[in-house]
Amino acid sequence: MFGWRRPQARRITGIATAVLTLAGALSLAAPAGAAAGDRQGAGPEAAVAERLVERGRAEAEVAAAHDATRVNVTRDTGGWAFGTAVLATEPGSRRMPRGWLFLAEREGGSWRVALEGEERFAELSRRSPLVEPEEKPLFAGLDGGQDRQDKAPGGGGPGGEVVAYGAGDYRTGMALPTTVGASTVMTSGPHGWGGSAAPWSSLDFAGGDEVVRAARQGTAYTMCRGWIRVVHDRGYATDYYHLWNNINTDGGWVNTGAFLGYTGTDVTCGGAAYGRHVHFGLIQNGSYIPLAGHNLGKWVIYNGSAAYQGSAMHGSRRVGAGGALYNYGALGLNQAVIDANGGGHVNKRTGPGTGHAIAGSAADGATVTVSCSASGTSHTGRYGTTSLWNRLSDGTWISDAYVWSGVNGPISGWC
């Protein structure tokens, strides 16, 4: 229908001519001034590997010499290619693999390559016949985040990638990567994708039914055996690693809570797993970002004094690393969780202020839907003092001091 075919995936792995070490990938670099992949008749793999090494250096410092680039072309025409690109590490290594989706366009005799999070990736996705209709709006958000201006230290990388860290909006619309309505142990609090190094983008989960599920709807991709990535809206993506019996997918649509695999210890692309679990990572615009302050399954994530510590809070209830988190499901982008700041409930009123009559109460940890907001009397809660009041879907009002919405301001506009 779109003029492209889905051939057997061409994975660069397994044999000497197919696995490119870092040194080997660099030896393929084009002469100065030439485009990547400027070899007449060559496929896109070498050009993608070269770009992968550049991006890996920018985001993961200097890669080790034994690291291998694994390029998997899952869709192609004569002039376009799409797939996954992984900078793999040694199984058992303390260093985790890194990976991105890629798009490549052939211009003359050269392949122009873009990875997730680079402005060119979003631009190519709008034109490429390989990108499915449901992928296009998701990929368009992977362009540095025009609505999110806070950038990571160091700015953009060699491909123009821009890392956005929330910019005051910490809503994800995500559940926990576990079964809704059940509890799973958060075996490790916030830590880096590859260990203790910042950003602390990742959590570990184990126990319960051991099923790993999509935290939010989106398009799913198998990065390698044991590793699934789901691309969501608003520039977000999530990673799920160490899986056992995971799905095999190239852009298949998954709903929130969809089965991705089981917790496991798989390290096919590198890294280490000391016991069965899922290593869950949060990505925005192609790069791992801090989880702290974001909401998953109606729990707000907090850092600890060191990596792997930290906690999660639902209303006023805090659970530390090693404790069980009940998956309440995703918090809608127009919803908030009541945080009574240690109390059992918060009063609802007939208008935006304490001068209005009490019209009921909302229990600590309850979910409310916000219709609009207005100014009223000031109150102080866990996150500071505010005069903002929220009109709920039932027509009552509650002070913004006693809710977590992910935004320091109206989430559904002004009344």
UniProtKB/TrEMBL annotation:
The lineage of its organism: Bacteria, Bacillati, Actinomycetota, Actinomycetes, Kitasatosporales. InterPro entries: Dup_hybrid_motif. GO terms for molecular function: peptidase activity. Residues 1-34 form the signal peptide. The keyword Electron transport does not apply. GO terms for biological process: proteolysis. It comes from the Bacteria. Residues 126-159 are annotated as: Disordered. This is LasA protease. The keyword Nuclease does not apply. Keywords: Hydrolase, Protease, Signal.
